[in-house]
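== Sequence entry ==
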Amino acid sequence: PCLPLRRGSPLLGAAGGAAGLVHIYIVDDIPAARGAMVMTDGAGLIASNLAAMLPNVSEGALLPGDGGGLSPLGCQGRVYAHGTLAKGTLLACRSLPPGVIVLTSSQIKVEASASHGGSSGEALATAESQRLFALELIDQTRKHQPRLNAQLIPILEAASGEDGSEGRKRFCAYLIRQAAAEAEQVLQLQRPSSSRGQQLAAALKAVHNKGAAGGHAARFGLGTPSIADMVDAGCSVLHEPYLLEQCQRGIDNALSKLRKGKMRLGHDSVNVMGFPDFTGSLREGEIFLVIDGKHCQPLAVVRGAGSLSAAAGARAGPVPLVSDALVYHPPGVRASDVRSVRSVFCRKLAEELFGDGRSVD
């Protein structure tokens, strides 16, 4: 096992693919320092030139446009290669030679058959599958606002303090304010005085738009406009029976989710796709947060702020920044499923992911 992107890795000097040719390398997973955990479970790499060729996809749906030559930082999908099936995530990397995909052993779900035994039909099917190469794209890195859930709320409530404490009271008050504010926005659909813009905004919230094609909500069926499309086209929610029925369903669904604790978090929280650090640059307990194609560090504070002047006099260059953050992987139900980490800036990762920054979405 080795870190594929660390200096001296044999993968950095591996043969790249010529025009129209893809080279796939399968490497060992990186084990944890302790225990039987695997640090690279389901995670692989893809050369930046291949990532730039990928279409725009959101949760399995093909979106319009070709991305304008910009490549996503990562994607989730399946790779079919000569009888081998692999699945998981692929992180776009600039150090890899062009036309190269790196898969870890944990991503391999089906291995190619070495023989063509059995009937002639089975042999033909096996031969055909071993000539197949395809990359099925399921999802891409993109920002969308996260929500609380029935599992996370009790964990955060317990961490806010003892029952009856000021911390517990503040947390419960925050939940009530968030639920009331979201319900108020959704219920705009039922008010005759609402403008078309207010109805459109409420329609998007009622169906829990996740930033799909054109910023509009998912459609109800093949060839049927979405609520947002119909409102945007000039239909009045209160005078169009079909639209009114669909909006009422959306309202009922949205309020049902609020009752179950599925309310939006604030702007300092974000739902992201996670990848291991294949360069080995981050220390234990550190993350490098990327939002909208650039490093993001909300609520950043200067490390060692008390000795800022001394640090500035002792060395040139900026003082490192660090932010405290909580990381949660749903549907975690234990306190250990919420981890306290440090969000930092890492120049090595920035160069690996962004390069000059002109071709990163």
